[in-house]
Amino acid sequence: MKSYTVAFAGNPNTGKSTLFNLLTGMRQHTGNWAGKTVITAEGTFTHNGKEYRAVDLPGTYSLYSNSADEEAARDYIIFEKPDVTLVVLDATSLERNLNLALQVLEITGRTVICINLMDEARRLGIDIDLKAMSKRLGVPVIAISARNRTGIKELLDQVERVADGTFAAEPLRIPYSEEIERGIAELLPLVEQSLGADYPARWIALRLLDGDESLLASLRRESLGIKSTISKEVSGHGATACH
């Protein structure tokens, strides 16, 4: 049986873990991320004859290094490279939740956006144009209600399309100021030379420009051969507020 890995990401209180539990049921176990006190949950589910390993990432508001939760979620997406990152959003708080979704899209296009709590949104008179969102973000966007178990098949169909490569993503690329884009352009060849093509070089360059020492530490721990030239180049730019 073909097997894929799906990482569940989302802000706290979006129903991410409710969806995770709905899909995995009793086929799950918990533990801790390596070197951290942050709890992780893993499980399995099947869809259309394919098996999926589900990883419930810590609930976070961003993928920056402001907490152990954020570092654990960030490092999993970058280094473990799941086949699909499923970003769960609260339909009643899209503006706040989309911040995390955009950060994930900067790292990987193998993403499905899941808008949960649609029952609550409808009760509040909120209407969401899913096709427009999908076109703008460049990845599938599906509306569900995990607690009412609606939209789940449609969601899993899109997860399957991204996992097996049927869907060709064109994720939104966020433009920054001229100064930041210039810094990214200067760092990009160094990052690509050190890491190769398997890692999100633009996003890593962006975080290094922002002085993200935690990311550098994680890269070193992964033994990716980060060259001293990158650190020197970053220090030459100084920490730039990218976000």
TrEMBL record:
GO-annotated cellular components: plasma membrane
Family matches, as PROSITE patterns: G_FEOB
SUPFAM superfamilies: P-loop containing nucleoside triphosphate hydrolases
CDD domains for the chain: FeoB (cd01879)
Ranges where the FeoB-type G domain occurs: 3-165
InterPro entries (UniProt xref): FeoB_Cyto, FeoB_GTPase, G_FEOB_dom, P-loop_NTPase
An example Gene Ontology molecular-function term: ferrous iron transmembrane transporter activity
Domain of life: Bacteria
Protein name according to UniProt: Iron transporter FeoB
Lineage start: Bacteria, Bacillati, Bacillota, Bacilli, Bacillales
